[in-house]
Write a structure and sequence with these properties.
By secondary structure, the chain is of the alpha+beta class. It has 19 helices and 17 strands.
Length: 509
C-alpha cells in the first residue's frame, strides 16, 4: 500500500509538472492571439483610409499582410519585458513554451545544399585542368549517395584521376599564398580545403539565420547536418513558399560604405520631422493619422516622456506624436563623431523606413544619404529590442558602395594580448582591394566605415589611420561569438559557394 501511495504521489507530481510546462505554451498562445487581434483592428482601420484606396488591387493583400505582421510584432515587443505570468516576462514565457513544430502549426520544410564544388573551382582560379574538372565531377556524382563530405570525396577522386600531379599546382594561387606552396603535400592541401569548406558552410548558415530572423517567422529552426554541407530549415506558419525560396537562395551582398557624422545629419532629421508632420496632416485624413499614431503606442520615446513626467496623460503623448511623428518612433542620438543617428524599437523600424522613403521627406536629406539599421541590438541602449540607425554616405557617382566583399581573401579571429586577450577580427584583401581600401581609409580617418551584408549593418568601426597593405584589424569590444559572426560575414563575399534548395515540403496544419 505504501508503494502504491508513493507511486500515486509521483504520478500526481509528474502530471502537475507537465501542466506547469504546458501552461507557458497556453499563456504564450493567449498573448499571441491578443497581438493578432490588435493587428486586425489596425488593419480594419487601414482598409478605411485614403492611403489604402490608392494601393493597386494586386498589392492590397500583401500590403495588409505586411501591416498585420508589423503591428503584431509591435504588440509583442511592447510587452516583452512585462511580467505576465508568475514572475515571468512575456519574453521568458516565450522561451519556455513548447515548440509546436510543422506538424501542429503547418509551414515549410526546406533542405539547402551549400555548393562546395563551386567553392573548389573558385579556389583553383585559372589553374583548372581536365583532370581537375574530372575529379570535381566524380566527387559530385558520388556525393549523391555518400555520407562523406565533398572535400574528402574530391581528394579520393583526385588520387584516381590526377595522374600524379600535386594538388598544390592547382590551388597554389596568389590568394592562397602563405597557406599553399609548391612543397605543400596533397594531404595538407585537402586540410586547407576542408577549412575553407567549413568556413563557407558556417557563412551560409550565418546568412540564412539572419535572413530568417528578419523574415519574422515564429519559432524557426535552422541546423547544419554534420559536415555534408546541407542545412535544414523549418519555418512554422509560413504561407508564402515563393517568397521563402527567394529569401533563402538570394546571393549575399557584402559591402563597405563610408558614413556621415550624426551631427552632420541632425539638422536634416529635425527638418524631416517637421516636413513629415505637415505632410501627414495635409495628405492624411484624421482617421488615418490616428491609425499611425496608435501603431506606436509603446515606443521608446513614449516611455521616456512618461518617465520624465513631461507627458502626464495619453493626450499629451498623442499630441507629441502628431507634432513629431518621426521623433515619436526614432530617438535622435545627439552624437557628434559617430555614424549612429538614432535608436528605435525593432517593431518601429519598418514604419521609420516608410517615413524616410516618402518623397517630401527624402528630398530633405543630401542625395548621398542612406539610412541602414544594425543587425544586432544597440550597445548604447540597455534594451535588446532597440537598434541603431546608421547614416550611410553613398559618395560614388553611381551610388554604389566604394568596395564590396569580392576583394576580401581572408578573415579570422585574433586575440589582442594588450587588451587582455580580447578578440578582434583580422581582414585581408587582394591587391586591387588593398589599393581601394588604402584610399578609402585615408580619406575617412576619424570616421567610421560600415560593414553591410544584405542591406544591414553588422559593424561600423572607427578608422584610426590609413590602412595600406590590405591587412586590417577590426576591434570593437567583441565577444568571441560576435567576432566569429563578423568573420563569417566578411567571408560571405569571398567565394561563390551558394546555398541552393535541393528539397522542400509545404506542410498543412
Amino acid at each position: 500500500m505504501q508503494n502504491k501511495g508513493f507511486i500515486r504521489v509521483v504520478a500526481i507530481c509528474f502530471v502537475l509538472a507537465c501542466i506547469w510546462q504546458l501552461s507557458f505554451t497556453l499563456v504564450s498562445s493567449i498573448y499571441a492571439g491578443k497581438a493578432d487581434k490588435a493587428a486586425d483592428r489596425v488593419v480594419e482601420s487601414v482598409k478605411e483610409s485614403a492611403a489604402y484606396a490608392k494601393v493597386p488591387d494586386v498589392d492590397k493583400a500583401f500590403y495588409l499582410d505586411s501591416i498585420r505582421k508589423i503591428e503584431s510584432r509591435r504588440y509583442t515587443d511592447s510587452i516583452s519585458s512585462k511580467v505576465i505570468y508568475f514572475g515571468n516576462t512575456y519574453k521568458q514565457v516565450q522561451s519556455k513554451e513548447i515548440n509546436l513544430g510543422l506538424d501542429l502549426k503547418g509551414g515549410m520544410n526546406v533542405m539547402l545544399q551549400v555548393q562546395l564544388e563551386d567553392l573548389v573551382k573558385a579556389l583553383a582560379g585559372d589553374n583548372r585542368t581536365p583532370e581537375f574538372e574530372k575529379a570535381v565531377a566524380l566527387a559530385k556524382q558520388r556525393s549523391v549517395s555518400s555520407q562523406s563530405d565533398f572535400i574528402t570525396l574530391f581528394g579520393d577522386a583526385w588520387k584516381e584521376v590526377g595522374g600524379g600531379q600535386r594538388l598544390s599546382t592547382i590551388f597554389g594561387t596568389i590568394d592562397m599564398a602563405g597557406r599553399i606552396n609548391p612543397e605543400t603535400s596533397d594531404e595538407q592541401v585537402i586540410s586547407v580545403l576542408k577549412e575553407e569548406s567549413e568556413s563557407a558552410i558556417a557563412n551560409s548558415f550565418n546568412v540564412l539565420r539572419n535572413r530568417i530572423d528578419r523574415f519574422g517567422v515564429t519559432q524557426p529552426s535552422i541546423q547544419k547536418l554534420g559536415n555534408t554541407g546541407r542545412i535544414l530549415v523549418e519555418l512554422p506558419g509560413v504561407k508564402e513558399p515563393e517568397r521563402v525560396r527567394k529569401l533563402l537562395q538570394g546571393t549575399a551582398s557584402l559591402e563597405f560604405w563610408t558614413t556621415y557624422y550624426a551631427s552632420e545629419i541632425a539638422p536634416y532629421l529635425e527638418e524631416a520631422n517637421a516636413v513629415l508632420a505637415q505632410s501627414l496632416a495635409a495628405d492624411t485624413p484624421e482617421s488615418e493619422v490616428k491609425v499611425e499614431d496608435e501603431t506606436a503606442s509603446d515606443d521608446i520615446v513614449s516611455q521616456e516622456l512618461k518617465a520624465q513626467g513631461s507627458a502626464s496623460d495619453d493626450a499629451s503623448v498623442e499630441a507629441y506624436k502628431k507634432a513629431n511623428p518621426l521623433f515619436a518612433v526614432l530617438t535622435p542620438t545627439g552624437f557628434r563623431d559617430n555614424a549612429c543617428i538614432g535608436f528605435a524599437a525593432a517593431a518601429d523600424t519598418a514604419l521609420i523606413n516608410k517615413y524616410l522613403a516618402r518623397p517630401k521627406v527624402a528630398a530633405v536629406f543630401p542625395s548621398e544619404f542612406r539610412a541602414m539599421w544594425t543587425v544586432k541590438s544597440s550597445e548604447f541602449v540597455q534594451d535588446s529590442n532597440v537598434f541603431d540607425l546608421v547614416a550611410i554616405k553613398a559618395s560614388s557617382r553611381d551610388g554604389k558602395a566604394p568596395l564590396d566583399g569580392g576583394y576580401v581573401t581572408d578573415a579570422r579571429v585574433e586575440y589582442n594580448d594588450r587588451q587582455g586577450g580580447e578578440p578582434s577580427v583580422s581582414m585581408t584583401m587582394n591587391a586591387e582591394g588593398a589599393n581601394v581600401w588604402a584610399r578609402l581609409t585615408k580619406e575617412n580617418v576619424g570616421r567610421q566605415i560600415a560593414i553591410v551584408l544584405d542591406g544591414t549593418v553588422y559593424s561600423y568601426p572607427n578608422v584610426q589611420n590609413e590602412i595600406s597593405g590590405g591587412v586590417s584589424s577590426i576591434t570593437g569590444h567583441f565577444s568571441i561569438e560576435e567576432a566569429t559572426d563578423l568573420t563569417n560575414v566578411l567571408k560571405s563575399g569571398k567565394l561563390p559557394a551558394p546555398a541552393t534548395i535541393v528539397q522542400e515540403q509545404v506542410v498543412g496544419p
